[in-house]
Amino acid sequence: MPKNVADSELPTHITSLRETFLRQEEFDQTYLFLPPPQVEDKKRKFILKVFHPCLSPEQFVRFIVSFIPIVGWLPDYRWKRNLMGDFMAGITVGIMHVPQGIAYAILQGVDPVYGLYSSFFPVLFYMVFGTSHHVSIGSFAIISLMTGTSRAEILETIHDEYLHDEGHYLEQVAQLGYTSVDLRNITDYVPFHLKGVSGIQVVTVITLCVGFVHVSSSLKKYLQLLMALLRVEFVTSYLSDQLVSGFSTGASVHVIIVQLDKIFQVPVDFVDVQSVNGPGGMLMQLVSVLSKVGDMNVVTFLLSMCAFIFLYIGKDCINPLFRKKFKCVPLPFELMLVTLATVVSYIFAFEQRYQMKVVGVVPVGFPSAEMPRLELIPYVYKDAFEIAFVIVAVHLSMCKVFSRRHIYSTDNNQELYAIGLTGVISSCFLTYPVSSALGRSMLMEESGGKTQLSALFSSALVLVVILWLSPYLQYLPMCILAVILIFSMKNIFRKRDELQCLWRVSKVDFAIWMFSFICTVFTNVMWGLVLSVAFALLTTVFRTQWLEDYDFCTTAELPRWHLLSRLEGTDDYRDTGRYGRVTDIDHIRIFRFDAPLLFTNVDHFRSAVEKATITCPVMSLATLDNVLEVECPNKAIRKKCAVKRTSFKRSISEYHDSAMRRIEHLIIDCSGFTFVDFMSVNSLIEIYQQTRYNGIQVYFAGAKAPIRDMFEACGFYKSVSKDHFYPSIHDAVQAANMNQQIRLFKRAKQKRVDAEVTKIENAKFLSNSCVDDRKISIECIKAQTPIENDVEEFCMQQQQQHSNERECTDRESSTDQDDPDNQNTRTTYLSDRY
């Protein structure tokens, strides 16, 4: 209630309005609002949460078992209901694991047998630790490409360092005057991380890089385990669906270009691996391959084309008809192609007759377990972080998709533990980094898979290949694996519908997709991911700060500010530009800003408040800039009401009687503030003071508890009283109505007082009028216009009458000074007469 106005002076209809609303403080007291927890309480809760499993042996055992979900779901497994579906899905996915594992191992530059290992061990371990029922863990093209790129760069770095140390050692030997030297002693002088590595081993490590690749991959998996321990799965939220889609498509281009030399079987040699893996490296490799097409192996190229035709006819023509008719799992044409190509290559001796590259000898059995070389961490940790984040982002997104589709829950943090522990344990068995693959996961779902137990049957099939069938793979042509890889990428490039939808719905999301794709293609996979994330974060700032000023953005993208009005017959307040049956409240404007109030957009907030109050101070509604021409409801639904909204476009005359009433109360709906920073709080104080200076009362409605806590911490309430805060918009409107009634009451009272004073002043002015002034006026009139004698005589009579009245007034003024009643009567008389 305004100051200097007592309740006793106000009419009853105004004082009764005070009972219709609550201030924020009154609301908190009524409903026992609890203050935020203190720092000590947070520390205590954190300590209890960390050490809670160690309070008793039972809790410790329960904590350990929680990391092994199979202990919980296996005893309750529905054998009759799920076993057959899991068996069929496991065998089907296992058939896919064999050719894909071999192909992705070649993509990483390691022997094919390690692809079989990576299709066996991680699958079993994820079955123990994972919570998703349908994702298929194993080889993934994008991760294989990133790992292969990282492997090549790290090997070249170590090779350069070794040669530098070897040259330094030889210089020292030459200075000592020795004529011969045993190079085996060089290991005593090179850095510790190269201990036990001879010169010939470093040269041939690109070919025989079995252990090194898996050391680097195991370190990547340790990072995933660290992510789980630190509970940083939120980091993956920075990888939006559009970013991942554009990045995956761009990385698929890299996969295809890398495999082209195997399709044509042309030699592609690069002196500097890092230059090839750097910006424009893929284009350099593409140009190099195309420039040597004339030297290609014709038989290899023809076999590759036949393989493409075989897969296209089988997977895109026969499989849809076969599944439609027999309602069963699709035929494994990849495995058929591998078997057929191996048999034909063995019979016709492609390697000897046509110098066709084949897989070569594949060892039988499993390798002995060995620990990764942790001293290589300084070389791999940068790339490891990027690969770990991509694995987690892809895996968690697929877990979310299948859990929603089949209505079960997955634990994101447990999934981090699962993928991390799977990698850590598998790294001891010479496996490369793995992730969930969408193609195999979809195949598992279509094949009837119900639980993680299907992984047991797929691993069993891979085990058969490792123990007994792997020797027969040595005649498999390398071009067949390249064809399988390239053909598996075809669905990734079917993005026309997705891009059209993005262009229609969100130009910014479309820009994120295109930027991620272009950066990944023209730089490399690592830099493409980094630049894509940076650009996506930049668009977030762009959305919250400047986006409203650009016409190419759709309505759904804009961090709009709105004017709200009351819906007819309710106490609900909605966007005026979206509803037609609304009531605009006289003298009150309700303002809402749908964005966090940060230093990046506080200037935009300030200008929005200025537009809503100062620039157009008369009452008006936020209207549609262009009226929807809706021919039918279906057309309106198709258009999704995609219109631009602006404020103050309608003329003042359209608002009838209430249009010219000025704004005297501004209600800021704070429910749209998800976060405020220190700078925005200070700016909000300045906006409040400037608005009050312009004669507008400010109210804050619906501020969340964290926002009010931030106001308290920043000293906001020292400049703005808590009496200006209200729990809802309706409470603020009721308070504004009461204050407006008080203002009107004060104005009416002041108007009556001013009227009395004006009457008295008018009477005094008339009584003190000078006769000479009237004579001058008459002379001026006579000089300007011809006056008849009767008019002049009338004016002289009026002048004499005024002179007499003045003398009478002077005589009575001294006697009536002590009699107010007579004075008021005389003032009224004079006012009525003149």
TrEMBL record:
GO biological process, one term: transmembrane transport
The entry's keywords: Membrane, Transmembrane, Transmembrane helix
SUPFAM superfamilies: SpoIIaa-like
Topological relation to the membrane, as annotated: Multi-pass membrane protein
A Pfam family per the record: STAS
CDD domains the record matches: STAS_SulP_like_sulfate_transporter
Location(s), subcellular: Membrane
Transmembrane listed as a keyword: yes
Transmembrane helix listed as a keyword: yes
Biased composition annotated in UniProt, kind: Basic and acidic residues: 803-814
Compositionally biased tracts (Polar residues): 822-834
Domain of life: Eukaryota
All residue ranges annotated as the STAS domain in the record: 578-736
Region (Disordered): 798-834
Transmembrane segments: 87-107, 119-143, 293-313, 333-350, 379-396, 416-439, 475-493, 513-538
GO cellular component, one term: membrane
Name listed for the protein in its UniProt record: STAS domain-containing protein
